[in-house]
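Note to self: user wants both folds in one dump. Writing first protein now.
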Amino acid sequence: MRGGLFYCTCLRPVFILAAVFLCPSVAKSAPLKLDQNFQSENLRPYCEALIRTGVRKEEPAHSVNEIRGGEGWRACRDISLSRGYAQDVVWIRATLQNDTGKNTTYYLESTPTWISKVTVYQFGSDGRLVFKRDYGADLPFYDRDFAVPPVYAALTLESGRKNVIYVRLQSEGSLPVNLVLHSRKSFEKDRTFWSTFNGIILGGVLLLVLYNLGIFWSLRDWDYLVYVIFTLWAAIFLGSVYGYSFQFFWPESPDMHLRITWVAVSLGSATIYLFVRQFLNLKTYMPRTALVFLGLFYVAVLTGILSWPLAHNPLLQKVSNGMGVAATALVLSVSIYGVLRRLPGARVFLAALFFLLLSLMSIGLMNRGLFEFSEGVHRASGVALMMNLSLLSFALAAKIRAIHREKERAESRARKILEASRDDLERRVARRTAELEQARQTAEYLASIDVLTGIKNRRALIDLGRVLLERSSEANTPLSAILMDLDHFKEINDSHGHGVGDTVLEAVGELLTELVEGHDVVGRLGGEEFLIIRANGTEIVAARFAEQVRRQIEMLNIPLERGGLMVTASFGVSEWIEGQSLEELIECADRALYCAKDRGRNRVVKFSEIRE
């Protein structure tokens, strides 16, 4: 009596738990009952699975009858159906009971769309095979029953009887398993959804491409061209994930679809690196990170090139998938740093990358089998990528607006300076009539000076040059012009910013003020171009002086946050000839200057040398 009580209360529950955990294959899934109100149902709670591990390439041609009678079947709800990139073949078995009172056709959906081969078997209540059909991305697209990216198999179920279906799945890439049974009404709604969803995604991407391509054409801003390249990649990537590139571009070439998919994944990482490097101007603000991104860009491009011949290689597939996830995480961290540095457009850019991270990591982690395939997450990843593209477009616009605002602030500061000078002059005139002449002379002096460099501006320089030319003509004395242009000044502005460019101009202006003496005149013609007019100086004397100036400029060291900046200049020298106008004299010097640039820059060239 005591032994029986001990068995019932203590040992029997232990034996039951051991049977559940140590022998899961004995668990059978209940049949899915289909009545008049049935719409759709995922088969996971109702199916059993047989995982043939590591036999994708070597599995013999087992008959379905051998599989039916085999051991190892387990309830789908107890195991993971996302197999990652393993060399597995997955068999799914489900029992369907039609309680509608008549033979009814249902539609079995298999997603995602990149599964290489999906074979569907249907057995009637008497055990006879009544349906067998091959589907999947390994077959031409229009060989399937319905011309939509997901696989749909039409199954007619006998009324009042149990019908057993077997589905064999294998993939050249990742193998997430998701089977859903639809009624005809649900099937039509689902098929319409996929067509509409793909149309919206593809149409949205194409609109973004055309819109930003037009902006690039009008602004010639390379950020927009890189964005267009990134958006085109997104179109190819989404087309591969959702299957519409297979449907519309190469429906008769399944192998092409597989290769393009993995090339798109690798080149996607490359375009992400390129776009972030260009958009955040890493070459200026984070030069070391810019070099790292450039190296990663070339690695991703190389992986994309290798993806074409090695598209069937599981190792390359894992590397390509991992690169996409890693690229997004790395770029996200750099963008956070850009926000902290308050770079133009960095905040919107960071928000956009958050959606890109959601999209790529959700797809990447599902593909690697780290969590089960979800239709909602699968569709949401495309929406997240579209949000990313839209926000990136806004980020570009925000960057342009920030640059324009900075320009407006600079112009406002210049206007305030001029207005302050004018107001001060008016106050002086109103307060002291006796100093009117002095105030007038001061205003004229300010009007003749280049504000940035402190030397004569173009108008004053030309006026004084004509006076010197007239005096030289009357006294029959020589007169020479030295035209100077700073080398690679645009690259200085682009690489270090306009603030550093202004510092260079100020330093050169101070140097020229110190070197030019007597009756000679120096001024800024515009941009990085300066003109020196030498009175009583021949071309040879002027060339010597130009060489002295060139050496002094070469010795300048413009301080930067990290190190210093070296500056060089090219010179053209010409001597006035009887009958020449000032404009003709400057034109001769300009021709000599262009010759100096053609000869390698940072040198002095006399006009007499090229005239001979």
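First done. Writing the second protein, which came from a different request thread.
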Amino acid sequence: MKRNLFLLILATAMLASSCTPKVKVVENPIFEQILTRNIDISRIEISDSATLVTVDVTYYPNYWITFSKNTHIEVEGQEFVATAIEGTEFDKRFWMPESGEASFKLTFPPISKKAKSMNFFEGSENSDWKIYDIDLTGRKKEITKWHPELPEELRKEINDMEIPEPIFEQGRTKLRIHLMGFKEGMDRTIELKASSMASVNDDKKVTYDPEKGYAETELLLFGSTRYNFFNRNVNGDFWLAPNEDVDIYIDCRGFTKTVYGRRAGRDEYLPASVYTTGIYSDYNNALSNRIGLISIPPYEIKKEFNYKMSAEDYLAKIREIRKFYLDSLDRRIELRPIDRKISKLMIDLNYCELAMQAEANLTTAFKREHKDIEWRDLAKHYTPPTFTADFYKDALQDIDLNDKSYLMTQLNPIYSFNRNLRLLDLSDGNVYKEQNLYDWDLLRKTQNLTITAEEMEQAKKFKNQLFYEALQHHYIETQREYAQTQGKAKIEHTPNVADDKLLETIIAPHKGKVVVVDFWFVGCYGCTLDFGYYAPLKKKSELKDVVWIYVDCESALVPYTTRIADLDGIHYRFTREQWDAVGKKYGFDFAPTYFFVEKDGSFRRREDLRHPDKLESALKEMLKR
């Protein structure tokens, strides 16, 4: 009997052993936090000989990525460095295909099949891709709505509320910014960028202190102000009012929500959820947890226009477009009431912009169908219809231009309205007129130090002194910051020639040389990416004779001079009018735009050489000629 029992136990053990999988597979593992929206782990295979991790990458088409040779996983405090990779090579640039998607399989040493979680680190720098607490048990769960570190009093479901009114006063507001879910290795620097009725290019950097559990700063606000925040790991936005003491709680799982959404077939970027104390606490909560806002997509919708339209046809078309998106808003039953209110305001603002840009939109429509006609010759071939003051008045008759709620949307109506509102005969009681909100161009002049004494004196007479105070502040701060950049960057004098002759004039002194001319501006993300791609080319001895010329379009003075301080090359700073004249002549209205100049002085615009390897080959060929 005992012998039979022993054999039964032995057989059961052998059966259990034979049922243990030789390879443990986890599909689409959940994770606690990811510090990029560009990667996902779709499969993990754990065997006795290796650990295989499939990494899916989503990135800009025709831009490069790399996997560091220091890529590693951490399991139970132990580090395992990758030994091989399929699909590319370590520390070598991989150029993303047109689809913007690629998959790679990384091999690591074997880990315990009993391990419950692991971390993934692509390298050891702050900017490298990181995923924390990747589940290895096969559990499935949804990400929790409220972060455990969020105070109970801020855990509110805000489905409806009135859009708060903007505040028109100056004041200092103190901030404490909490990064909920902060982990060692995350970026501690938080950049803040203001967007308000009396602010432009107001940037601030603060540093998160893990020991305190927050970053702190004080901001001078000119009226209600929306701040965008971002670093390598999180980004989003929130509203602030002057004269407050506010705590900001940022849920660092924004990228996690985005990647989970992509798995579910929702290809949308979700900003980090933000919760605040203060006057705009509920509004920030509502905006942060928006289900989806509807607006008119400006670039796609412009394809709807036919250059043969009359002013009446154009007006009928944009009204049709507005009605279509308002009807779409009505059909979106899943939206909360607050989402509907904000979307309605955004659709109205988009519609206003279409009305104000009528002439430009029809001219662009003509060029789209007549690609053989150069921009400089368009006036000979096409005359847009006349858009009178009555046209604008008629177009905007259904828009309440005295509604201050427009100032509290995700869009900045001041930028869209600034010059264009002058086309309208606004009544003396209109909020935009009373608050001088359509003189936004003066703010840009203060930050370029081009505002005149006469303009500043005129601003003194504004009924609302908030705007004048903002002009004074921005002008003084720009003078101070600009003085600190002196001697670090040289800006060439723009030649005194006709605007449409500027390109030929700035390249003329370099005849006999190969020249690259780069039209760019500070806010152009692709432009600054390219700077990094091309920097190694400048150091190659065989390309040392290439001349690099950079032409900026009137970017704010301080960010511009700071950016070019370490950008080797010859620098020009064109006005908006000069840039437009050259663009009209040579057919471009975007950045970056590149011109390549042969030794004989001939040149042409090319967009096919943004790949560094292609550019290097082309420049070497040009140098041989």
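Dump finished. Worth passing along: The chain has a mean pLDDT of 86.
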